[in-house]
Amino acid sequence: MELLDKYREEINKDLVFNEINIKDAQYKLPSRKHFWCARLIDAKITLYKLNKSKKDLKERLSKALISQSPVKLTQQGALAAVENAEQIRDITDQIKDYEILVEYLERVEKIFSTMHWEIKNIIEINRQEQL
Fold this sequence. Notes:
Number of helices: 4
Shape: rod-shaped
Distance between the termini: 48 Å
């Protein structure tokens, strides 16, 4: 998924800091955390919309199958029959991609939540070395 690759590259830039830019990284931390939390919410919204689209598509396809079928089909039978439709498979793949993206962004959010401790520890190590 290219969106995941794009996010990984951006996050890698946010998580790289050294003695020179550590203060800048510390000041930017709240805004970067907010930025990535917003991306997480965007991904969750997209995932919700994809699930809703899949459900609506399955209902439409099953109703069309029932109306066109020469034999009487139950709703459950029609739903099972349309499960292998190409459109359903495509949207299922998109849902899986977004589920992975949501999981990744949830873990990134945890990293950003604890990053202030990492920065504090680095600053403390630097102080100790200067004594």
